[in-house]
Amino acid sequence: MIRAFLIGLALFTLTACETVKGAGKDIEKGGDAIQNAAQDVQESI
To answer: What are the helix (H) ranges across the chain?
Structure first.
């Protein structure tokens, strides 16, 4: 029973890591878009 719990916990942890990794990529893309927009505004001034 403990073995099954540990396997389930390991699978959950791996899934959570992938979710966090994906969220990090989305946040990074959003930051890039903001940075590009700020550069465009700065160049137009």
So the answer is: 2-44
